[in-house]
Amino acid sequence: MWEGLGLQVFLMCLGAVLCSAVAASAPLEHSHRRRLSLHRHRERTGKEGQVLHRSKRGWVWNQFFVIEEYTGPDPVLVGRLHSDVDAGDGNCKYILSGEGAGTIFVIDDKTGNIHATKTLDREEQAQYTLTAQAVDRATNKPLEPPSEFIVKVQDINDNPPEFLHGPYYARVPEMSNVGTSVMQVTATDADDPTYGNSARLVYSILQGQPYFSVEPQTGIIRTALPNMDREARQEYDVVIQAKDMGGHMGGLSGTTEVKITLTDVNDNPPKFPQSVYSMSVSEDKVSGEEVGRLKAKDPDLGENGLVSYRFIEGDGMTVFEITTDTDTREGVIKLRKPVDFETKRAYTLRVEASNTHVDPRFIAWGPYKDTATVKVMVEDADEPPAFLATSYSFEVEENAHDGTVVGRVHAKDTDVANNPVRYMIPRYTDVEQFFSVGPEDGIIKTTRPLDRETLPWHNISVSATEIGGHHQDTKVRVNIKVKDMNDNAPEFATQNEILVCRRPPLRGANFEGPSLLCTYSTSAPLLFTTDSTASIYVTRRGFSRMTQDVYFLPIEINDNGIPPMSSTNTLTIRVCSCDSKDTILSCNVEPYILPAGLSTGALIAILACIVILLAIVVLFVALRRQKKEPLIVFEEEDIRENIITYDDEGGGEEDTEAFDIATLQNPDGANGFLPRKDIKPELQYPMRPGGHPVANTVDVDDFIKTRINDADSDPTAPPYDSIQIYGYEGRGSIAGSLSSLESVTTDSDLDYDYLQSWGPRFKKLADLYGTKDSADDNS
Prior knowledge:
alpha+beta, 5-stranded mixed sheet, 4-stranded mixed sheet, 4 helices, 38 strands, disordered N terminus, beta-catenin binding, Cadherin, Cadherin 11, type 2, OB-cadherin (osteoblast)
């Protein structure tokens, strides 16, 4: 990088000498002008009162230069400043300000000499702007206005060329002509292009010859050899150099690498590696199966290397076919139809391989195709037997006895060995086993009579198996049609009734018979036709539905088959009522018992009214019978809820033997429990000792008090008063018998005022009878 360092030192010394000469001549010019300026200054100051003119600045200098990268022991003298006002007595002081003042550039305030204290680099900063001024040392007052000057850094060749975008990658088609542009490389030099040759670059190739070249001034890389073949070499590493100083000795240089790749073109035809290919195929292979593969090599890439295959001649062009495998670029030979070893044992084919995409620039290099011969040998295989026909069709009469021959199938072994064949019927094709086949001769027979009306066709399969070898078998379809025989007597096609009007016209009614030509016999007039139908004519003017509404007419039917068959069928004829247009209105007998003139709508209305009335009556009866059930349920054994009717009134209160007081006792109430309907009792209270009268006790008052006390203390008793009915009034009652049913209706003179003195329990009776008596008296 630092080639020509001695030359640089020489140039630096030469520059220093030149600068010294300039610096030596500058004081002379400055002194001459200073004398002029000083003279004018004195003239202005010596004439008092005269008009003063602006004096010309007393110091002049040009641009200063300093060489970059100076590495000497002493600071570099840049230049010297001197003013006309400086008398040399030390009163003038020079001040320097601006870029780098005090750090890079320093000035002697007495002499005005400027020195550079640091090494400068033009590539970092090419020039510096400074300001100089002369001031009075004692007062620091300016003696002259400040002035700017420029210090330029003088360039030297200290930067080599650089390739900023390297390394580079380029592509160029193979077989390109000489001088084909590959790419352009560009280097940059940081030195000053306007000063000398430091930045003047020249390009050259260091590596990559003789294949490529580079233009010295532009850096364009071009091909240098013709017919560069990618298949021989695909990549090239080229080294390019850029050198400054115009390429002369002492210049700095830089290099970069360029990787150049040759791209593919279709410049190679496909080529079979061998001229003859041998293949084999077994005769048991089916259509579409692969026989073999062959490949023509093409070193080109992509679509340039695509190859298609085809047969151009041979005796197997209709038996075989060839296709191209796009993944492997192979030609795949397949069977177009099966081959037979016994018929033909070898085939010869001519195959052509050609490029699908041909570059017109290289078409003269053709042809882009190649041919090869393919020999296919057919191998013998153990094949199953073959039937002489692809399917068989036979006929057999129905009802034929078992063992009737239906037909024969025949198969043979097509192999060279010609093994015998055995026949059988797979059971899944003849589940009910209607047929059998001879295992050696293939004769099919029936095993039972067949019925055409049940199954008119039988579709079975017969299998032929090779005896010996690999026991291979093959199957054939056998269709057996059952021929019809006259084994069914004729009968009506349908059993529908025939409807006739009560007053019919003199015409017939048609009905169908069986499909064969039939004859009909009956007592009624018939009209025969050839389409297995017959017409019945009515011989009466009218019918009475009240007398008979349905007629059953027996008809004998005979067919013309062999042997002839006959049957007797009954035809049902129903008499119906019709309107004037012979449209049937009704065939039922019920409407005739109703009054004449009632239509169907009227009948429906009458029936609806009857149903509504019945519903109202049923609802009324149900409401009348509805009763409200009591909350307390008494069992049938409780005689207090029953009305006992007897003829003997008894002997009154004194009669203690007419009725047993024990019957008044409630069996359930004896143990302190009354059944409730509204609630379910949770506790059962035991009988209280000593509180109940014995069976022959006649003191009713004690009995009543006991029962009242029990009811008041019973938590299961109803929360309301209940009427207790007793059949015995007690002993010694002055009121007589209360059970007399006639006492209410008889005109009795009894006075019931005494009931008022019986207490509150008899107050109700006293109010009833006492009020009545009072009302009678008032009336």
